[in-house]
DNA sequence: CAACGGAGAGAATGCTCGTTCTCCCCATCC
DNA sequence: GGATGGGGAGAACGAGCATTCTCTCCGTTG
């Protein structure tokens, strides 16, 4: 028997791949089981309902996504470079073969109206992202409004890249961000 | 008996209210029937499957949405004012009580991975929107890249307004748009 | 060794939903 | 008037799915 920790990891990995890749309602618990290799009994012991598994998936993805973004941005030499690096990181993300847009926007569109938990998780994710960008602009001595504007650009690039299937919106957003950054 | 044209209108109105308001998979054909007052038999005569009804809903919404935007923008005196008016129009839209983001982004997030028809309709809508904005910037003697940048801002504002439940992103996007417009 | 408790496989349950079918009514036409 | 055809209401069908239950197996403990 695999350890509970390993089982939980496998379940969350399967949930992330499947929920993100195909949508939450399109994936049944049976498919989570077969992909993770963890029996339904154990699955329900660890996550008492599909809704709780969805929340766990979203929470873990939120933390990881923002950590990866922060690690990339913080590897830059100056605050200005960190800001522009956000859009380089987006470009890399958009190019990943399984990229399908923002997991939070997608789950909000799918379930936001019926699940307040999903709606709230999406809201918290976007708020954290906006706060992160305003933190970067503050470090560069720029106003918080610039952070909001850059966040809107990034948000738009994510949606547009997902729907058009192109990574180009990241470059477009970066060019616009550069103009805003220099004007601020 | 109501005329086929009236029945079709009622069905599409019900579909739009329900699909947009709660998500496509969350709404059953039975609810379309009870809301529209059109019997299931006639419903299936006019739209042979739920998928076709979804496509009809999206197609009509695409046309109407872009018409309303264009009417608002074209009521302005100068090309520059038309461009900025796009964001005023967004602000009005965000303030509507049933606003729940972009119907195309939402349906893409929900069904884009499983339905190529939905994915394609969403893509066509975004492309038309981008083309409309680059047309506005061309009329103002500005490069097409400005149109793309403004479209990203608008797109980000829509998503952010939907998730946070605030109309404020329209104002933020307009402020950023003004900077980009004056710099271009 | 024998009882036990927890684990896996997967069947069973109960519900939802897309789609079709049945049955009945009524307006039209001979 | 009586046949007919199209329409409405809603039951029926079949599939999918979240969740639970059953049965069997095996490792542990006394």
Automatic annotation (TrEMBL), chains A, B:
Ranges where the HTH tetR-type domain occurs: 5-65
UniProt keyword annotations, A-Z: DNA-binding, Transcription, Transcription regulation
DNA-binding region: 28-47
Record Pfam families: TetR_N
UniProt entry tagged with the keyword Kinase: no
InterPro entries, per the entry: Homeodomain-like_sf (IPR009057), HTH_TetR (IPR001647), Tet_transcr_reg_TetR-rel_C_sf (IPR036271)
Record protein name field: TetR/AcrR family transcriptional regulator
Species name: Streptomyces rugosispiralis
